[in-house]
Design a protein that fits this description.
96 residues; mainly alpha; 56% helix; flat
């Protein structure tokens, strides 16, 4: 007699928490690099500031938290987000 094993349906979030997104798309490593001059100007901070507006979706609780942290630091929250992004980009480029 055959026994049926109940399969639990998982959400997309649960699936991608346990599986890499790129593993489904590519089997080989990806080599991402910047031109040497651009990479150097970003790392040294000597890049001319040419700002563009972007739109991203963020949980309202995160926005509220970012605004509180920015208020404590005495800077606008957009500046704080730019600062965090800049720090993360520099850290990623140092490793590469």
């Amino acid at each position: 007699m055959k026994t049926k094993i109940a399969e639990r349906k998982i959400s997309a979030e649960e699936y991608y928490d346990t599986h890499g997104v790129l593993a489904d798309i590519l089997d080989e490593d990806i080599d991402l690099s910047l031109e040497d001059a651009l990479r150097e100007s970003i790392l040294t901070g000597k890049r001319k500031r040419n700002l563009r507006n972007i739109s991203i979706k963020i949980d309202p609780l995160y926005i509220q938290s970012i605004k509180k942290i920015a208020t404590i630091k005495g800077i606008p929250y957009q500046t704080l987000v730019r600062l965090w992004l800049t720090e993360k980009i520099k850290n990623e480029l140092q490793i590469a």
